[in-house]
Amino acid sequence: MKQVRIHGRGGQGVVTASELLSVAAFNEGKHAQAVPSFGSERMGAPVVAFCRIDDRPIRSREPISAPDAVVVQDATLLHQMDVFHGLSAEGFVVINSERGMSELGLDDLRARVSPGRALTVPATALSLEHVGKNVPNVVMLAALAAMTGWVRLDSVLMAIKERFHGRVADGNVAAAQAAYDNITAQLEAFRAHAD
Amino acid sequence: MLTQIEGSLAVAKTVALCRPEVVPAYPISPQTHIVEALSAMVKSGELTPCEFINVESEFSAMSVAIGASAAGARTYTATASQGLLFMVEALYNASGLGLPIVMTVANRAIGAPINIWNDHSDSMSQRDSGWIQMYARSNQEAADLHVQAFRIAEELSTPVMVCMDGFLLTHAVEQVDLPEQEQVDGFLPPYEPRQVLDPADPVTIGAMVGPEAFTEVKYLAHHTHMQALELIPQVAEEFRQAFGRSSGGLVDTYRCEDADTVVVALGSVLGTIQDVVDDLRDEGVSIGAVSLLTLRPFPLDELHEAIRGARRVVVVEKALAVGIGGIGGIVSLNVRVALSDPTLPVYTVIAGLGGRPITMVSLRRLFADAMADRLERTTFLDLDTELVERELARVAAKRRTGPLAENIIRDASAIAARQAAEA
After folding, report:
1. Longest C-alpha distance within chain A, in Å?
2. Any alpha helices (H) in B203-268, and if so which ranges?
3. What are the angstrom distances between the C-alpha of B377 and each of A49, B136, B264, B300, B348?
4. Is-cis flag, bond preceding B113, omega within 30?
5. Per the omega criterion (within 30 degrees of 0), is the bond before B112 cis?
6. Fewest CB atoms within 10 A around its CB: which of B100, B123, B383, B416?
7. How many Å apart are CA B353 and CA B260, to the nearest integer?
8. pLDDT band at B338, cuts 50/70/90?
9. Are B102 and B146 in contact (CB under 8 A)?
10. Vertex A22 angle, CA A73 and A114, to 5°
11. DSSP E strands: which ranges in B247-406?
């Protein structure tokens, strides 16, 4: 089972992101369970959502305390809470930022996880460019797909097209594709460097 | 059709397939998405003929449901928490009059202190209201139970409450095999009321009954529930044959064969418990789980059979009977009645109150303590004794200690800050 925790702020589509991730996994015939952390959600307040993905039916409903991946939709949360709590050394981290991990002061984290498993992606910039709004949520999913391979890009794109329509769908698909390519390029550069 | 869908929406779509003719409802978290979806389906014409009535309170919701059901309409509503409490007087009228209303309770704690999160305090408080009560373990089961609930309610002319954990199920997105309209139509015949307000054939409903016959009316309500003990497994079996999957029934056992320790619970926590049972069985531990799918009528014989042979029973319940903690909680008291050996240890575990997560780690520790027979008769799972001690110390030190909930949350955030600083 893969367990994903998504951090963001109210209004950024955190809950939608976990839901679409579950739909993407479902589209591949997998079992998936998406749940928001329940609270009195307000615009701008920290919000957390969870998604489990497995080949078998998922029965447990405990909150995810040891995630296999953490998605951070809003980098300002890094100063507010321990978004990496419970993350294993084999875990993945993807952060929405135009800056790199070092610039964000996250060299410790990068040293803690396996090489190439903690990356940033400019999801806000990509969503502004392609969707015309700051909606980084589905962009981050494509980045996660590129990093982990837990769901395929086409499954994410299918989930986007099922959920959105018209220009919003087209924009999100373009932004997701761009985020996927961005991460793929980072990983290739990483491998080239390692060789 | 297999769909990845939010629990609330799955229930709303399934209820719509049951062709309710009147839905009076008042929104309250975490039930809101269910009635929002139904109102949208009525407005769009997807659910027709059906009247969705926006009422001004839950008391009105149940009152309108009573009127609609008495007029011969298939009637559905949903509520939670304080909303359920607000409709209590009408709730007893619905069952007392024998009106087959189906209602979802999106289980949520009862205030004060106000709390929107999940536990079973709301529906447990109405366990003796005369409504049949069924508890769903998953969103698939929640959806399926509604199809069965209309069958059971209408056949017996008595109302049915389908309880599903608020947020944990209502807001969870997971796969649900939604039935087709033809399947539901084949399983659920049109509503044929036993009594109906019809100007062409006038009757009154709701006569005052004095001492000469009140006992008999109540006896017959009990008799109906005893009939439900026969009907509920039949309907579950028919459902399995028609839809190709098992949902509902009275009790369900999981790896209970020769189990020394049997855990009894209701609702969505059973999934987590079953995962823990699997882990422990892999380690050679003799443990199983019993799902109590129907709480009213209470399936005494089936539960007796399920826990027969166990050396101890652990009842995990998400509600608290304040003032009787030492003897057992609401569910445990019922479970005790099903024991063949009254000396058998029955451990009451109060868990998940007000949305406190029930984790596999805590359950493992709990079951280990139970198997070593070192549990108290009543255990509050993951009770923060420091918080409790602080308040008790305040109370001992001075008279005007101020409001309890405010004191506790102030302490809780201070402790959290201290722990964060230490970490």
Report:
1. 49
2. 214-243
3. 36, 27, 15, 21, 6
4. yes
5. yes
6. B416
7. 27
8. confident
9. yes
10. 55
11. 251-254, 261-265, 287-292, 294-296, 312-317, 346-350, 378-380
Q: Which of B63, B17, B8, B18 is nearest to B154 (CA)?
A: B18
Separation between Cα atoms, residue A97 and residue B143, nearest integer Å: 41
Are B4 and A31 in contact (CB < 8 Å)?
no
Could you tell me the two tokens for B128? 């003796």
Q: Using an 8 Å Cβ cutoff, are B264 and B226 in contact?
A: no
**Is the ipTM of this structure higher than 0.85?**
yes
CB of B159 closer than 8 Å to CB of B149: no
In the three-class reduction of DSSP (H, G, I as helix; E, B as strand; rest coil), residue B119 is classed as: coil
Using a CB-CB distance cutoff of 8 angstroms, which residues of chain B are in contact with residue A33? 172-174
Tens of pLDDT, residue by residue over B294-336, are 999 999 999 999 999 999 999 999 999 888 764 557 788 888 8
Running DSSP on this structure, what letter comes out for residue A12? Answer: S
Q: Is B272 on the interface with A (CB under 8 A)?
A: yes
Banded pLDDT at B247 (limits 50, 70, 90): very high
Q: What is the rounded distance in angstroms from the CA atom of residue B180 to the CA atom of residue B244? A: 13
Residue pair B105/B163 in contact by the 8 Å Cβ criterion: yes
pLDDT one-digit tens code per residue, B44-74: 999 999 999 999 999 999 999 999 999 999 9
* Contact indicator for A17, A71 with CB cutoff of 8 Å: yes
- Element holding A9 (H helix, E strand): strand A2-9
Cβ of A31 within 8 Å of Cβ of B174? The answer is yes
Give yes or no for a cis peptide into B49 (omega within 30° of 0). Answer: yes
- Encode burial over B280-299: b for 16+ CB neighbours within 10 A, e otherwise: beeeebbbbbbbbbbbbbbb
Which residues 143-182 of B are in CB contact (within 8 Å) with A? 167-168, 171-175
